[in-house]
Amino acid sequence: MSETALAAVQKPTAEVPAIRLRRLTKSFGETNAVDGVDLDIRQGEFFSMLGPSGSGKTTVLRLIAGFELPTSGTIELEGQDVSGKAPFERDVNTVFQDYALFPHMSLVDNVAYGLRVRGMGRTERRERAAEALGRVQLGKFVSRRPSQLSGGQRQRVALARALVVEPKVLLLDEPLGALDLKLRQQMQIELKELQRSLGITFIFVTHDQEEALTMSDRIGVFNNGKIAQIGTAHEIYQRPAGPFVANFVGTSNLFDPVVAGRLYGRQEQFVVRPERLSLSWDRSAAMHDGVASLPGKVTSIVYVGHATQVNVALEDGPAVVVLVGTELPEGEQLLGRDVTVSWAHRDAVWLPGEA
Amino acid sequence: MSETALAAVQKPTAEVPAIRLRRLTKSFGETNAVDGVDLDIRQGEFFSMLGPSGSGKTTVLRLIAGFELPTSGTIELEGQDVSGKAPFERDVNTVFQDYALFPHMSLVDNVAYGLRVRGMGRTERRERAAEALGRVQLGKFVSRRPSQLSGGQRQRVALARALVVEPKVLLLDEPLGALDLKLRQQMQIELKELQRSLGITFIFVTHDQEEALTMSDRIGVFNNGKIAQIGTAHEIYQRPAGPFVANFVGTSNLFDPVVAGRLYGRQEQFVVRPERLSLSWDRSAAMHDGVASLPGKVTSIVYVGHATQVNVALEDGPAVVVLVGTELPEGEQLLGRDVTVSWAHRDAVWLPGEA
Amino acid sequence: MTALVLLFIYAPLLLVVVNSFNADRTFGWPPKGFTLEWWGRAFDSEGVREALVNSLWVAVVSTVISLILGTMLAMALQRYKFFGRDVVNLLVILPIALPGIVTGIALNNMFTTILGVSLSMWTVIIAHATFCMVTVFNNVIARLRRMNGRLEEASADLGAGVFTTFRLVTFPQLRSALLAGGLLAFALSFDEIIVTTFTIGAGDTTLPIWILQNLFRPNQAPVVNVVAVVLIVVSIVPIWLAQRLSADSVGISAGRARARAAVK
Amino acid sequence: MALQISQPGADPGPGNAPVPRAKRNSFSALLNRSPNIRLAGLLAAPAGWLVLVCIAALAALLITALWTVDTFTGKVSQTWTVDNILQVVTDPVYQTITLRTIWIALAVTLIDVVIAIPISFFIAKVATARWQKLLVVAVLMPLWASYLVKAYAWRNVLAEGGLLEWLGTPVGLNSPGYSESAVILTLAYIWLPYMILPIHAGFEKVPDSLLEASSDLGAKPWNTMRLVMLPILVPSIIAGTIFTFSLSLGDYITAQIVGGTTQMLGTVVYANVGAANNLPFASAVSLIPIVIIMIYLFVVRRTGALNNL
Amino acid sequence: GTTSGNNNPGATAKTEIGAGEGQVSILGWPGYVEDGTNDPKVDWVTKFEKDTGCQVDFKPFGTSDEAVTLMRTGQYDVISASGDASLRLIAGGDVQAVNTGLLKNYPDVYPFLKDKAWNTVDGKNYGMPHGWGANLLMYRTDKVVPAPTSWGSVFGDAATYSGKVTAYDSPIYIADAALYLMKHQPDLNIKNPYALDSTQLAAAVSLLKEQRKHVGEYWSDVVKEVQSFTTGSSVIGTTWQVGANIAVADGAQVQTLLPEEGATGWSDTWMIGSKTKNPNCSYKWLDYIASPEANAQVAEYFGESPANPKACALTADKQHCETFHSGDESYAKQIWYWTTPVANCLDGRKDAKCTDYSEWTKAWTEIKG
Ligand SMILES: Nc1ncnc2c1ncn2[C@@H]1O[C@H](COP(=O)(O)OP(=O)(O)OP(=O)(O)O)[C@@H](O)[C@H]1O
Ligand SMILES: Nc1ncnc2c1ncn2[C@@H]1O[C@H](COP(=O)(O)OP(=O)(O)OP(=O)(O)O)[C@@H](O)[C@H]1O
Ligand SMILES: [Mg+2]
Ligand SMILES: [Mg+2]
């Protein structure tokens, strides 16, 4: 993969970016947690950092917030270098994964905290805090303690607390990680709405690719302390920059250069998404234009509700997963059956770079 | 909903069920965590318990394992009443959500524990434990401590530990809950394989519907301490027994009796799954046989990678979600556009019972 | 700041060390001369040895008693809700929270006036075990709170009875907490003077009693300094031991347990 | 990775006998079934011990306070009277001593809190892991030096021409001599570790993310300390004060060694137990610290401090 | 603690010493019963054990008050009681009368120590005199000029050395004030400093309260006091001769004197517990400890005047008896030995009721404030 080359590709924008990282590096002893990251995040953007565990997402966030100081490289906030500044000197706020609510304060005091340390009077700050709590639908809980709330509610308090001081950039480190599926989906929608209405820049860390895809304006995919690809959800999903991204974001069927050579006369890897593959339940796939076909055998079938995953071992290729949206032929023995898998040429995504 | 009526529907089986629950009830103070559950689980079955948080799944599992004693009702294990027995008197083993590995013991000692307390000699039990660890591919880690393993590896140790004593029934309480997406999907496949090859009855608790759908022979959907529906994945997804199940398992577009009356002359609710709805980007949907159509307006579009979720506000009906697998018309303003949503009559699932 | 505090902590101790070599029997400052006489005498003194043995014996026995009772109590209070739970909770704290002199005369009064038992090493042990219990109790209950409750269920699930579970699962988990609590109980008992004064029998001396008796005797006070120096130096062993053990067995959280444990 | 199953079916493997079933153990089963028996088994011995040794002894002490001493033989005569208690309550000298003792205990506590907070903060949050260990040991070690020896060392430090004066005179500092201040200083020294340790444990329990959150929201370090750290530490601090306060409240040995003429409640109790052998009167005096501590425990009960001891 | 026992001060004395019971438990001032464990060179117990076969079990006490408390437990066979403890023990029935005829060293004892108020009640002897000493006035020669001659320096004139005056920390110290008042305020009519009616006590208390303002430290153990003198924390106050000796040995510039008013002092008596199970060993101890050899060792180690004049020849320091004015009866006459104040006035007054020790204790608490 040529991650560095890719990471360096930045669209030049006339406006000052909200955050600009330049050759940002952070080492802990031997390990480079963050390794020469260059990144511009635009004003008002919903930017997600996606990547496997240990890829350095949290560390980048902590560098931006000021909880860690970079080993080398710079951090600019709206054009101003803040690399050496303390957290309380940066107009950036964080929503922590464990929320980090002050357990000894009521909700309203928690939210008013940022205003309090800025010297705002008691009445005014409490009013504003109550208002902010109202905005996240917790208006009636103002005098509760954090321990009396559910996970989703705490999440909202943390959000209100960070937003009430009107930061230029809001950092969110897996804010939904601790919530269960349904609540998580609901909060995704709420968060996105909020960001849209406030127009604040959000930097959102997650290792859940679906979450990143559904919420973000742009996504940065991290691997090993470096950025593997930056782009919109569409770009990342449809045109992954390498096998790492292709595999990490969604399921991918990877075809090696040998198969590619046989089919297309081009000695490079390519991938096809499961939902782009189509299946015919016999060996007689119509060979029409712009479509490639390969014969295979069904090895297993998994019903996933909205569709069915059919695993097929191709005769002259890899084992692939086909996502079939329509009902399968009923009452027949499907396992072990000879089938043909086909896809449109334009659905094959070529992966440049090393194998 | 007529959950009780539904829950009572049990196919009579000739063989003795692995687990038979009869009017099982467990109260904690005022709350009935489990409320008169009747359930037969067949020998060798992969049975999942699905339901929202607090619906009583864990409590049923703990009652079966013997960690809690029922307030009323009976539990039979292979035809034998074990309601009052202690956990160590039941041939049932549990894989805990947090694995509950003994932190002070090496892996092999963890796995050998059940054999040790049964009085098996040191050499023999260690041999068997090592063998069991080999079976879950941890053969080379026998002398590590649990803290030196990753989440997925711990999960396997917990599994090996429970299986080495050859229980009749294995209980798993959200065993994959703590793992991240990729690992989770992999473990789902492995678990299912294991169950198939061992032929042991698995009772699997989850609140992730996709997980339940992909893995189970049968699913029991819990709500409020009661069973709302029992059936195969297909049955639960395609023929939900009520609005609760329809909504909990997958996304559902619910049409109320008024719309139903207008379209079909039948005053009952029905649901259509998002992937069963089709969308035409204009108002001129061909009205052919066996298909219903309604006009609407696009309110939002969310890209989810393998497909796109289009939210449409129907003119004479509810707001619905349509899952579009193909690429959307490019380069056009789609938000706010007038569209027609249609579905085949056979894809409408009628929900009997109260509105 | 920290350096200052450490100076504050160590200056007087250093003085003790210096005085153990001070030729002046009343320790004028600065020291008038250097002598090894006190060290020689301390090692010859049978009284010190006897008192030391007594102290060790009292400390060991009362630590063992408090380990057993404290653990039982912690398990009862942590796992069950019952009527009078708060009272018992207060009761276990009371002996340590009450000034030693109160505990001392209360026990003295009870043994001699009410029960008519004559004072002995055993009355000292009873008194010490009573206030040492709280150190074990606090350590164990803190560990139990942090301990994964599922572990015991897992053990039962795998076929172990109640006692087997305790032996193989619960006890090993508690071990470092017991060690920390036990060490502290030992230290408390070993250095206790006030309660001991009121509960010790005729002719018995523990080390602190010996020190008290000899601190103000013309030829003995310097010997006391020697004993103190030896104690300080020897104390490094159990402290390091506690550090090592807790660090090895449970990692970070043990650090917390240790510090928490270290408080009575 | 996939779970490789050697062969399908429940066969445990070649040559292996089936696993024996769990052993029957009806006593264990009984215990398992009945939480009450388990509780009784656990609770009987320790609670019985505490009630016997603790409650009974205190009750006896209270009763003894209601008896008198025969002035001729010096023996306790079991005639009931509230004279002792009355005298303790009404005689101004006991009020003076009580107030002085409380003042000393409070001052000691305050000094220890003031010293302990920054040093525990340093150990728990600033020092590196290596240093942290060393420092904890450094603070723990004086705990093992004999109380008496430490008090006596202070006697030497405070003496005219002693270490303190020797060090202090050049910087214009005077030794307080043997006095109330000397008692406060010495007690503060002796009980300091008992304050540092719970506070240190308290600091370790404060998650770093809370401090980061505070800083993130714009609080300078001092504000973080004042608004976040301290309130969370309150239970730990109170736990520490229980020790320093109660230990100081009952002290008489330090007062004897460095107190000069200072009398504390402990001195009076001790004098009356020994002197004149007036156990009833001593009991009556000792009711004062009992009441004070009980009130204090009652007041701080709700803060959760008792769990931090 | 207290044990109920027969209140019987007139218990009949023993008529002969039989074979030893093999053990004896002794309560004594620290330094009175040394078996070499503290200092191998200081040992007179081992010889006793060898000679009599009685194993000695020793418990030291810090003050007379503690001694009484411990003796009351009935666990001890023998006690070395000062005068302020002995009467309390006799009154409490804790000790028995002693047949001095059975003690072969008794005849050698200085006559002025025999048949005194603190060891003899109703003509019955309660023990073997041990040794005695005076509570002297000590001062730093370099700091206190001119040299004092009267207790007035620590009472009326205490202000001169305010903060540097020291005094003995025990209710019995009230007697020192009473002694001073006896000489300087004749109108109070004090005849015996241990027999004070409430007016007299009040006068002594107010004198001591006045003194309290100038006291730097009360001392209860002699090394502590010596240390204060050596460092200069104290410059004037009461002492025991032994304290002065240590101070001088340490190079302090101190001087002691018996002021013109006389002084209080102690005279110790070995007594036998009324409930002893080892009467023979107890008698053997009483006799042994008054033997010239043992008496000399004790007196020298503790720093006091021996009871047996023959001991003077055996002390290591040949000046010992002279330093301590051992045989000096006129010196001894000026000393008011510690005696427990009781309600029946010790000076023989029948019309007045005297204050007892528990009142002195409370007064002492009040004085120290
Ligand atoms: N304080 C630290 N000391 C040492 N190593 C650290 C520290 N913080 C992070 N690391 C290391 O830096 C690397 C990146 O960690 P980071 O927490 O940024 O990953 P992440 O992408 O946030 O992972 P996750 O999804 O698990 O949160 C990891 O290898 C981690 O072990
Ligand atoms: N020990 C207990 N004491 C009191 N209430 C309990 C206890 N255990 C469970 N409950 C209550 O019983 C109900 C069912 O809880 P249960 O844990 O079985 O739910 P669940 O379906 O497993 O939920 P989840 O998906 O969150 O694990 C809940 O309302 C819970 O609060
Ligand atoms: Mg992270
Ligand atoms: Mg659950």
Automatic annotation (TrEMBL), chains A, B:
Gene3D superfamilies: P-loop containing nucleotide triphosphate hydrolases. GO terms for molecular function: ATP binding; ATP hydrolysis activity; transmembrane transporter activity. GO terms for cellular component: ATP-binding cassette (ABC) transporter complex. Keywords: ATP-binding, Nucleotide-binding, Transport. SMART domains: AAA. Residues 19-249 form the ABC transporter domain. InterPro entries: AAA+_ATPase, ABC_SmlMolc_Importer, ABC_transporter-like_ATP-bd, ABC_transporter-like_CS, Mo/tungstate-bd_C_term_dom, P-loop_NTPase, Transp-assoc_OB_typ2. It comes from the Bacteria. PANTHER family: SPERMIDINE/PUTRESCINE IMPORT ATP-BINDING PROTEIN POTA (PTHR42781), SPERMIDINE_PUTRESCINE IMPORT ATP-BINDING PROTEIN POTA (PTHR42781:SF4). This is ABC transporter ATP-binding protein. It comes from Arthrobacter cavernae.
From TrEMBL, chain C:
The chain crosses the membrane at residues 56-75, 87-107, 119-141, 177-203, 223-242. Residues 52-242 form the ABC transmembrane type-1 domain. One of its GO terms (cellular component) is plasma membrane. This is ABC transporter permease. GO terms for biological process: transmembrane transport. It comes from Arthrobacter cavernae. Belongs to the binding-protein-dependent transport system permease family. CysTW subfamily. Its main location: membrane. It is a multi-pass membrane protein. It is found in: Cell membrane. Keywords: Cell membrane, Membrane, Transmembrane, Transmembrane helix, Transport. The keyword Transmembrane applies. It holds the Pfam family BPD_transp_1.
TrEMBL record, chain D:
Residues 98-300 form the ABC transmembrane type-1 domain. InterPro entries: MetI-like (IPR000515), MetI-like_sf (IPR035906). Pfam families: BPD_transp_1. Its main location: membrane. Keywords: Cell membrane, Membrane, Transmembrane, Transmembrane helix, Transport. Signal peptide: none annotated. The keyword Zinc-finger does not apply. The chain crosses the membrane at residues 39-67, 102-122, 134-154, 182-203, 224-245, 279-299. It is found in: Cell membrane. The keyword Zinc does not apply. GO terms for biological process: transmembrane transport. Gene3D superfamilies: MetI-like. One of its GO terms (cellular component) is plasma membrane. It is a multi-pass membrane protein. Belongs to the binding-protein-dependent transport system permease family. CysTW subfamily. This is ABC transporter permease. It comes from Arthrobacter cavernae.
